[in-house]
């Protein structure tokens, strides 16, 4: 693979028959769990998404253990990835599906032990049957993402500090275990302020950065290949600045993976944003994303950019696939606009306090990105 490839990973969980609850649970019956396997999803990505990508885009797949891949299906999933020319980009323990009282941070020792075992089995699977589907470039190896969905609580007590200590000890143990397997995975927290609990351990990017420094100080866990799965939407949904989050992540050499979704409030078209639930739109073309694209380009980030998104509740399968395509191409358009932006002139405007002119330049970049999207989408 050439070094100029742009790596995008597609999430298995996007391809569901419907979320249910207040919206249809069977709007896409052909993607129902009992008939639509992860192998089927991989073939779909190759045929219906890969065929619509520019030549410079390389695709990977993201999976939950043990909901979307497990010990029985891992070999067939790995074969399907290799046959399709796709890579394992990310794997994550689906602890939120099993543990409701804190997971590896739990004050219930039995739950904590079970959750820790889920994490080590995830590592075993990545280094075992799924290893053949890793990218050949070690710098593009998969990320083991720890989503904090089970690391939460809803009662304010002094026990929260004990939960945090449990979390540190458990993650330190997981890192040591991964090191014995080869130490080639990247490991990242995916911060989130809420869901599936009202309050979460590791709610923000800053929390994740501090956590890794504490693990280094207290347990001697090196921060190399440790960091954050940058999730745009999780910052947006509580009104934080995901552009500045990017600066912090890059400044700490801690951006190990990205999720390019959006809560929707920042392009003036789709609704969502601070105070709303986790909507998971795809990537959007806007000035903020062009700024982030420029930041990661300048930092030399060349790892996987994931699309953690959901179809709309009214989408059929064709429209849902199209939304994934649009998300990938929207980000590619933002990256191209960022490369073409005259940053020297932009900085001169900012230094002279000519912020209106700087706004004009960013608006022009949005127009350029939109025009490029139209070209590559069609």
Structure in words:
- The protein has 378 residues and is an alpha/beta fold.
- It has a single domain (6-340), classed as Alpha-Beta Barrel (TIM Barrel).
- Helices cover 43% and strands 13% of the residues.
- The protein has helices at residues 38-49, 74-84, 109-127, 159-181, 205-219, 232-236, 242-251, 287-299, 317-340, 343-351, 355-377, and strands spanning 6-11, 57-65, 87-93, 143-147, 152-153, 186-190, 199-200, 226-231, 255-259, 305-307.
- Helix 1 links the parallel strand 1 (6-11) and strand 2.
- Helix 1 (38-49) runs parallel beside helix 2 (74-84) and helix 9 crosses helix 11 (355-377).
The main sheet orders its strands as 1-2-3-4-6-8-9-10
CATH architecture: Alpha-Beta Barrel
Judged by helices, strands and strand pairing, the structural class is: alpha/beta
Whole-number tally of structural domains: 1
SS elements, strand count: 10
The largest β sheet comes out as: 8 strands, parallel, barrel
| DSSP summary: helix tally | 11
Percentage of residues assigned to helices = 40-55%
Q: What fraction of the residues are assigned to beta strands by DSSP? A: 5-15%
The CATH class is Alpha Beta
**Average pLDDT taken over every residue:** 96
Q: Span from first to last CA?
A: 26 Å
Point out poorly predicted stretches: none
> Could you state the order of secondary-structure elements as H and E?
EHEHEHEEHEEHEHHEHEHHH
Instruction: Provide the CATH superfamily.
Output: Divalent-metal-dependent TIM barrel enzymes
State the CATH topology.
Answer: TIM Barrel
The whole-angstrom Rg is 20 Å
């Amino acid at each position: 693979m050439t070094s100029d490839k742009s790596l995008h990973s597609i999430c298995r969980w996007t391809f569901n028959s419907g979320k249910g609850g207040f919206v249809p649970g069977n709007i896409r019956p052909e993607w129902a769990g009992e008939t639509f396997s992860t192998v089927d999803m991989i073939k779909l990505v190759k045929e219906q998404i890969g065929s619509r990508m520019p030549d410079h885009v390389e695709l990977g797949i993201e999976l939950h253990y043990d909901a979307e891949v497990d010990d029985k299906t891992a070999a067939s999933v790995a074969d399907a990835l290799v046959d399709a020319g796709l890579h394992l980009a990310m794997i994550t323990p689906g602890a939120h599906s099993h543990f409701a009282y804190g997971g590896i941070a739990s004050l219930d020792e039995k739950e904590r032990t079970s959750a820790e075992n889920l994490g080590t089995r995830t590592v075993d699977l990545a280094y075992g049957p799924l290893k053949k589907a890793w990218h050949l470039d070690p710098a593009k190896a998969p990320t083991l993402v720890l989503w904090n969905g089970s690391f939460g609580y809803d009662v304010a007590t002094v026990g929260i500090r004990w939960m945090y200590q449990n979390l540190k000890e458990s993650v330190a143990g997981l890192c040591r275990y991964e090191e014995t397997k080869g130490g080639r995975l990247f490991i990242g927290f995916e911060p989130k302020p809420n869901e599936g609990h009202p309050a979460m351990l590791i709610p923000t990017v800053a929390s994740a950065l501090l956590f890794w420094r504490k693990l280094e100080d207290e347990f001697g866990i090196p921060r190399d290949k440790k960091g954050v799965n940058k999730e745009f939407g999780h910052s947006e949904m509580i009104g934080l600045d995901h552009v500045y989050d990017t600066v912090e992540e890059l400044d700490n050499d801690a951006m190990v993976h990205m999720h390019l979704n959006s809560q929707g409030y920042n392009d003036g078209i789709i609704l969502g944003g601070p105070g709303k639930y986790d909507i998971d739109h795809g990537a959007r073309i806007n000035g903020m994303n062009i700024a982030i694209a420029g930041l990661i380009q300048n930092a030399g980030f060349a790892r996987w950019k994931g699309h953690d998104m959901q179809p709309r509740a009214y989408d059929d399968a064709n429209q849902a696939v199209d939304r994934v395509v649009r998300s990938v191409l929207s980000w590619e358009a933002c990256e191209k606009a960022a490369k073409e932006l005259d940053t020297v002139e932009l900085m001169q405007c900012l230094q002279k306090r000519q912020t209106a002119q700087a706004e004009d330049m960013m608006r022009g970049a949005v127009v350029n990105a939109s025009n490029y999207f139209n070209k590559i989408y069609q």
